[in-house]
User: Which sequence fits this backbone?
């Protein structure tokens, strides 16, 4: 049987894992799962819980998409630049 300290450590590890991007922000259920673990930890530590919000989840989720779009645009611009350089080099 686990000791009290080991149980707390296991709960903290669960919070750490569930708090990673891709877990807590996957969908509303997973956000609620994180918030439940956060409530448990805060209760044990006699602290105020710091919940993740729907707004944070949406921002986190769309930040990934925005980064991907920006990266695709940068690659498109770089590709155009490279093609222009190659075309100029062929003329020389």
Assistant:
């Amino acid at each position: 049987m686990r000791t009290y300290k080991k149980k707390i450590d296991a709960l903290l590890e669960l919070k750490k894992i569930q708090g990673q991007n891709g877990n807590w922000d996957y969908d509303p259920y997973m956000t609620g799962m994180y918030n439940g673990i956060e409530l448990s930890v805060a209760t044990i530590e006699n602290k105020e819980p710091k919940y993740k919000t729907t707004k944070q989840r949406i921002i986190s989720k769309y930040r990934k998409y925005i980064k991907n779009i920006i990266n695709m645009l940068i690659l498109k611009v770089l590709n155009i630049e490279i093609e222009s350089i190659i075309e100029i080099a062929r003329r020389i």
In short: The first helix runs from residue 4 to 18.
